[in-house]
Automatic annotation (TrEMBL):
GO biological process, alphabetically ordered: lactate catabolic process
EC assignment: 1.1.2.4
Sorted UniProt keywords: FAD, Flavoprotein, Oxidoreductase
Domain of life, source organism: Eukaryota
Protein name as it appears in the record: D-lactate dehydrogenase (cytochrome)
GO cellular component terms, A-Z: mitochondrion
């Protein structure tokens, strides 16, 4: 596994789950194999590569088993629950959105998302499956902040598209990202998909308005 958690993600996990990880952007790597010595060699090679790119060796933590390993992964696994209670305002709602970008543009997009949240006065827990360029933004909020949350999502999607990415890595399109998906793929592409949908579902009974926009002339009439 190859995962990332931003500093706010580590901070809220420490706060809620009482972990003691250093509150900075954190990369999680999990190595698997039958020979512990070889795994450690692989780990040391990765550490050496990271050092060439500014990673401070004193901040590297290696864990094989037990509580130390659980604490490291607790930060990543528990970030959604932690985000709900992060701001101490009762049980915040958590807005979840994701995008996927080419790996060389991932750092730029994550940093941009954090900057957007600061400008909009929001907190943002970012976790990422960075081996495939997919990152998730968890934004705790109250209903009165929804306008700012929607603006934030529009910004991260625009940046992802500008970087050659896609509007959703794994959460799907559903209803909320229909307009963004149409923007990504273009009218001609969407029209072809709508024609296929209409051929299979002429009455528009199957999840109308999800993934694809409703046809302007409505479903077929029988």
């Amino acid at each position: 596994q190859c995962e990332l958690l931003n500093s706010e993600g580590v901070e809220c996990t420490n706060k809620i789950f009482k972990t003691t990880l250093r509150e900075c952007p954190m990369l999680f790597l999990e190595f698997q194999g039958a020979d512990a010595a070889l795994l450690r060699q692989d780990f040391d090679k990765v550490v050496a590569i990271a050092a060439q790119h500014g990673c401070v060796a004193s901040e590297v933590q290696y864990a094989e088993h037990g509580e130390s390993l659980d604490e490291i992964w607790e930060a990543r696994r528990g970030c959604y629950v932690a985000a709900m209670r992060y701001r101490g305002q009762g049980r915040d709602r958590v807005f979840v959105s994701d995008v996927c970008v080419p790996i060389p543009r991932l750092a730029e997009c994550v940093a941009g998302a954090e900057a957007d949240c600061q400008v909009l006065g929001l907190k943002c827990v970012i976790c990422a499956h960075i081996a495939d360029g997919n990152f998730h933004c968890l934004v705790p909020h109250q209903p009165a902040e929804m306008e700012a949350v929607n603006e934030f999502e529009a910004k991260i999607i625009s940046r992802a598209l500008a970087c050659g990415g896609t509007v959703s890595g794994e959460h799907g399109i559903g209803v909320g990202k229909v307009a963004h998906s149409c923007r990504e793929h273009g009218e001609a592409h969407v029209a072809v998909q709508q024609s296929i949908k209409r051929a299979l579902d002429p009455l528009g009974l199957m999840n109308p308005g999800k993934v694809l926009p409703l046809p302007k002339d409505g479903p077929a009439k029988l």
